Amino acid sequence: MADQGFAQLPDPPYYAVIFSSRRNGRDEQGYGAMAMRMFELVQQQPGFLGAESTRDADGFGITVAYFDNEDNILAWRRHGEHAQARARGRSDWYQHFEIRVARVERAYGAARSDHA
Amino acid sequence: MADQGFAQLPDPPYYAVIFSSRRNGRDEQGYGAMAMRMFELVQQQPGFLGAESTRDADGFGITVAYFDNEDNILAWRRHGEHAQARARGRSDWYQHFEIRVARVERAYGAARSDHA
User: Fold this and answer.
1) In this structure, are residues A53 and B60 in contact, taking their beta carbons and an 8 Å threshold?
2) How many alpha carbons fall within 13 Å on the CB side of residue B48?
3) Record: contact B103-A100, CB cut-off 8 A
4) Residue numbers of chain B with a pLDDT score lower than 50
């Protein structure tokens, strides 16, 4: 079975939105509900290809969302519910965040099928 | 004081190497020593701009390393000690990994100075 942590992506080129953030440690319940809702919503967006996300015990996280082109990234950015969530993120949930939008040009990887 | 989890980067354009991986849960000590050595080494590479890295309790991690151009990414890829570490990674430490090389075109962020 494929590892669900990894996005299943087409061949490049495509676009990556790299979102790095530090949680402030407050309102874990509200934050978790928003994160789940945004993941549900982004999967319905035109051009969304997949996402990978992880956060360590110190509250530092990286989420990378992949889209087919920049227009669809902008459309997701303008989505009303997403804009509201970002405003809540800035005011209530994140101590610091950085966003980098990048064009993926090459990709490769490997998965082990053995479990030795 | 700046949050040490975040890379301090120049204005785009620059390049990102997005490395997603699932640890196999084995040899935490050997893996940790390699990861520390690679972080020390990459900081000495020409064109290295910064890196961000995080891994969750399930062993899924994302590291993004930033470089000024693709030639310097290839030079780092060819670095002997790094190539050895990658081979060990494939054989001993990772269940699955994916690498995407991308050109960062836009970047923005925000940090809170208050601690209310």
Assistant:
1) no
2) 17
3) no
4) 116
| Closest-approach residue (CA) in chain A for B12 | A100
Q: How many residues are there in chain A?
A: 116
The string of DSSP letters for A65-108 reads EEES-HHHHHHHHH-HHHHHHHHHIIIIIEEEEEEEEEEEEEEE
Instruction: List the one residue out of B98, B17, B63, B49 whose CA is nearest residue A61.
Output: B63
B88 vs A25: CA distance, rounded Å? 36
Q: What is the ipTM of this complex?
A: 0.94
Provide the CA A15 distance to its chain's centre, in angstroms: 12
Which residues in chain A have Cβ-Cβ distances shorter than 8 Å to B12?
A: 100
- By C-alpha distance, the chain A residue nearest B65 is A18
Q: Which residue has the tokens 């494939």?
A: B90
Output Rg (C-alpha) for chain B, integer angstroms: 15
- The whole-number pLDDT of residue A116 equals 44
| H or E segment and range at residue B87 | helix B80-88
Alpha-carbon distance of B100 to B5, in angstroms, equals 21
